[in-house]
Design brief:
By secondary structure, this protein is of the alpha/beta class. The protein is built from eight helices and twelve strands. The strands form three sheets. A six-stranded mixed β-sheet has the order 6-9-10-3-11-12, sandwiched between helices. A four-stranded antiparallel β-sheet has the order 2-1-4-5, covered by helices on one side. A two-stranded antiparallel sheet has the order 7-8.
Length: 261
């Protein structure tokens, strides 16, 4: 695929998603530019995860247009999205890591390197995978004692870092992180956030979904607020404050509760 600088990386136009009678995504339009970090916020059930799953090819939108590099994009599975460079890093409990495998094997999962044997690519090239894993972790500043450690023995933050690092091997252009720091410590959170900024320096875009305003304000270039499936704010970080964003999330919810009382 040929990247184009004249188009946003992705663009959603009037996207709707219905689950039965429930409208989880209601007429949402947005853009994500190359290398841009978007902070996506909103109260519980605002539709954040649903929107991310649409972008990541988990859900097909009920209506609306999805464009990638300015061209219509219809991912039929997360696999399609991944092939186009869109990677979703899930919450820690349902992350795509295999606990029984070591760090290197997890990093290369689905992209294993093979050694040629009798003219066939048959043997897993563990040494090369471990070497490349070490290089990548060093390059990203991820501190994991050894790449031969089983993932189940790593801390939550280390696991999160491995799953973000994995996206680099898959040549991700957009990394979607749905509450990446919800179950890890403050120190580990800092590392995960630094990793997002490191990806940005490599030109990779990300969308980070979080209830923690500190996480959002320390990484995002632009902040989008959802409320009951609708986009109610889309603003550059410099043009707003944490107080203003919190008010948008909370106040909007209060108003809507009053309206429905
Ligand atoms: N697969 C599904 N089937 C039916 N309803 C769903 C499905 N996924 C989400 N919903 C509903 O859509 C609405 C939005 O859910 P979503 O998970 O997108 O919210 P969220 O903003 O991510 O919330 P949270 O902050 O709690 O993670 C909710 O009312 C939810 O119950
Ligand atoms: Mg969610």
């Amino acid at each position: 695929m040929k990247p184009s600088s004249t188009h946003p990386l992705i663009e959603l136009r009037h996207i709707y998603k219905f689950f039965g009678g429930l409208c989880a995504t209601n007429d949402v339009s947005l853009t994500v530019n190359p290398g841009e970090v978007i902070g996506l916020v909103g109260d519980n059930a605002a539709g954040k995860s649903t929107l991310m799953k649409i972008i990541a090819g988990v859900h097909a939108p009920t209506e609306g247009e999805y464009l990638l590099d300015g061209r219509r994009f219809v991912p039929r599975s997360p696999r399609d999205a991944r092939d186009a460079g869109i990677e979703m890093v899930f919450q820690i409990q349902d992350m795509a890591l295999v606990p029984e495998l070591d760090v290197a094997d997890n990093l290369f999962l689905g992209k294993e390197l093979y050694r040629r044997w009798l003219g066939l690519n048959l043997l897993l090239d563990r040494r090369k995978m471990q070497e490349k894993s070490r290089d990548l972790l060093r390059e990203l500043g991820i501190n994991i004692p050894t790449v031969t450690e089983k993932v189940k023995h790593l801390s939550g933050g280390q696991q999160q870092s491995v799953s973000i690092a994995r996206t680099v091997f898959f040549d991700a252009r957009l990394v979607i992180l749905d509450e990446p720091t919800s179950s890890i410590s403050i120190t580990e959170t800092r590392k995960v956030l630094d990793l997002i900024l490191e990806l940005k320096r490599k030109g990779v875009s990300s969308i980070i979904v979080s209830h923690r305003m500190d996480d959002i304000f320390s990484t995002a270039d632009r902040i989008i607020v959802l409320r009951r499936g609708r986009k109610i704010e889309d603003i550059h970080k410099e043009d707003t404050t944490m107080e203003e964003i919190i008010k948008k999330i909370v106040h909007a919810e209060e108003l809507s509760l009053r309206g429905h009382a």
